[in-house]
Amino acid sequence: MSPTALRLSSASRWRVTGSLPGFGASLGFTLFYLGLIVLMPLAMVVLRTFDLSWFEFVAKVSSPRALSAFKISFGAALIAAAINVLVGLLLAWVISRYRFPGKKIIDALIDLPIALPTAVAGIALTTLYAPKGWLGQWLLPLGIQVAFTPLGIVLALVFVGLPFVVRTVQPVLQDIEHETEEAAISLGASPVQTFLRVTLPTIAPALITGFALAFARGVGEYGSVIFIAGNMPMISEITPLLIVTQLEQYDYAGATALALVMLVASFALLLLINLLQSRLAARGQP
Amino acid sequence: MPAFPHPKPIRRRTATVAMAVLAIAATVLASSPSARELELLNVSYDPTRELYEEINTQFAAQYQSSTGDTVMINQSHGGSGKQARAVIDGLEADVVTLALGFDIDALAVRGKLIPVDWQKRLPNNSAPYTSTIVFLVRKGNPKQIKDWGDLTHAGIGVVTPNPKTSGGARWNYLAAWAYAIHQPGASEATAQAFVRALFKNVRVLDSGARGSTTTFVERGIGDVLLVWENEAFLAKKQFGADTFEIVIPSLSILAEPPVTVVDKVVLRHGTRAVAEAYLNYLYTSAAQEIIAEHFYRPRDATVAAKYAERFPPIKLVSIDQDFGGWRAAQAKHFADGGSFDQIYLK
């Protein structure tokens, strides 16, 4: 996430802010490190894809099954990230604005989805929401089946993505100066107006970052989804599963072709979100 | 009786040094040719964990008593295809014992780790034990499921893993196909229609065989689980004989999980002799007993006769005779656009 980088590029291309020296060395190390840890593995994905001809590549990534898997993966990740923005904001609000017994425990609970092995999360959710599970058996008569449907995928992604929204919004909420909200109220703004016109613009960049992180986490998620999705082709088959399917046929190039499409689409979306976020941030601080 | 006229302290020290040298030499000599410590890595698929734990102990004891060498066998288990890829990518397996020949073929074709005719090197297609695909149904068989034909009826919930991700599940799929193609007046088209109708009744396609068993047994999904015979016995044993029943269909497939030495690796490790002894041990009556105890069908006729009650006779088709081998079966049924994909593309 680099709103600063984007702003830099719009102003002067090379700028050293701050009084500590070492710009050259630290930038050099940053590029080297990113190259080693992030870019090289990704370059392997691209390289492997070149085993395919252009025609084969297009056929592979535009097959009906691949298209439906892309739709499910990106769709479910977007829906889950949107849900997480709403619920995550509420949770962050409660944790940062109120004092109540057990607050520390709730605060710690929020990080749990990151720490838990995703397979454990998937199995636990499936046990709960399967048609005979504790929650599933009550939902089924209402006509809602969660486990083994696309709804289950969204649920798993909501679970793994939640901490990202809470943890990005919470510090910003804590840092808001109460005086600004109090000033708005004393000048005659209603609570709703205060929230929409004063609080929300301040936390919007953080909310968007949280959305982006939750979305990025969800698109690539495999471990938890695989247990609850049902994995029916064209219905609840996610792209990462389709990639594993290719590997199972020893078709490495096919697998990386699908991965490449995911990568490029995710990168484009994240770039777009960053751009939006930096615009908002720029407007927030005149 | 002093043999050397040296002063005492020096003589004693010389003697000590000489003895130490002798002792070290003796240890080195004794340990190098006659009592070595060997290590093997057996890369296998998921449900064989307990089987090989027992076989490894027995083999190590037998090998030590016959050669004096101690051998330590490490095990690695996982999905069959994933295990094969790991070996191709450099996991140092001395032997592989996987769920289907297709995955070991990949070691020959893609990894160039073994010769392409690897399956001819050991008896019985290099498969020292077999299994077959049976049905696991709920106690009392409430939906009266007797044979493959019943699986396509409306209202029957079938659970089977995805044959595209699970090697074991490919046997399930081919067994269903074989049943359909053996019906009077059958053709490729009727077989395709049959598997399509069958998979219409499949609600959950888990990525692996153990996942399917969990879905059926613990989540309570479906009326019938298509399952390897040894897994069906294991589920019954684990969850109680009064919870499930095994139904033997009129026809099934001979599932042959083959084994082989990985030539390039044993050459590097210098472990060919012990690796071959290990695989040959699987064919001995002692190992065949262990195999039968773990619900795999033994190859040895005497052991098979002893366990005849456990493994009822069943009409079996084979991958080589009925499907032209794994490479042909894979291309026709499980490759992209194959008969399995046809089910889901209208």
Features:
heterodimer, A: 286 residues, mainly alpha, MetI-like fold, 13 helices, 76% helix, 0% strand, globular, B: 346 residues, alpha/beta, seven-stranded mixed β-sheet, four-stranded mixed β-sheet, 47% helix, 16% strand, elongated, disordered N terminus
Could you list the spans of chain B in which at least 5 consecutive residues all have pLDDT below 50? Answer: 1-10
Q: What's the number of extended β-strand segments of chain B?
A: 11
Structural class based on helices, strands and sheet pairing of chain A: mainly alpha
Which word captures the global form of chain B?
elongated
Q: Please bin the fraction of helical residues of chain B.
A: 40-55%
Name the average pLDDT of chain A.
Answer: 88
User: How much beta of chain A, percentage-wise?
Assistant: under 5%
Q: Sheet bearing the most strands of chain A, described? A: none
How would a crystallographer describe the biggest sheet of chain B?
A: 7 strands, mixed
- Give the radius of gyration of chain B: 26 Å
**Number of E strands of chain A:** 0
Major interchain interface with per-chain residue totals: A-B, 28 and 27 residues
Helical residue percent band of chain A: over 70%
Counted up, domains of chain A total 2
Q: Which CATH architecture of the largest domain in chain A is right?
A: Orthogonal Bundle
Order of helices and strands of chain B: HEHEHEHEEHHHEHEEEHHHEHEHHH
